[in-house]
Amino acid sequence: MGKNANLIRDHVNLEDKVWYGTDILISRRLRDNAPLPGPIRCSMLSLVACLKGTITYKLNLKLMHWVAPSVTLITPDSILEHCDTSPDSEGCVIAVSSDFLKRLQIYSTYQSFASITSKPIMQLNQNDLDNFHLYFDLVYKLVHSPKTPLNDKLVLDVLQSFFNYFLHRYEELELHKEQEEFKSRGEYVCSEFMKLANEYSVDRKDIGFYADKLSLSEKYLSNVVKRVTGKSPTLWIRWIVVQKATSLLFDLSKSIQQISDELNFATPSHFTAYFKKELGCTPKQYRKSLGM
Question: The domain containing residue 40 runs over which residues?
Fold first, then answer.
């Protein structure tokens, strides 16, 4: 009695709803602008689709804006409170009980479930939307069929595929976001490294100096710079030093010795070897190639 009462209370704002036993609920339409009698503690795992308009709820006290087309995963024991629904909103829901959820075995399959519950809203692309309608219509048809062992198995298999599809998409999007965040972070680190290299490369050609300036490990700095730019920090430092050298070589009033000293090389021969390694010619040959 208590369990059924909770289930009914959790879904009073659903219209056209169909139960399959007490474990599965499916509804083609969320009632327009009908607030939940809440806040309420949800008793089922629900995949709610906002197909048109917007729906605003507080989920575990956090304000959530569902903008169509999107789906939201609401886990058992979540606290849900209705805030607002746009007049043109359309949505639908599939919900399963905690007991049925154990039979789906999705918790053990998807390790990022905790991150999904903290970021439950997923915008749908056209392929996602097509798949949602495909699965939803099939489940809706199955729950209208007589409850037999065969139909029970079909419902279980389809719902498992349904939830697994969207959990997999959540994981893909989360991974993509992490990669984008890493790229963004990496681009920032590279930008700061290049600024420092332009400022200090004449005096400091060791990676450790730049890593310390950026409060990073040498390994992390090397990995990030190589991954973002395709070149290691050492190669960038050498390239910047050589660019400065080529600029100085245009000034004929300065000797190779003076340029070597200005770039903080121990000897002119060291400068010449450094320059030749990068450009394939000596500083003197470079000047000659310019007709100087």
Answer: 2-178
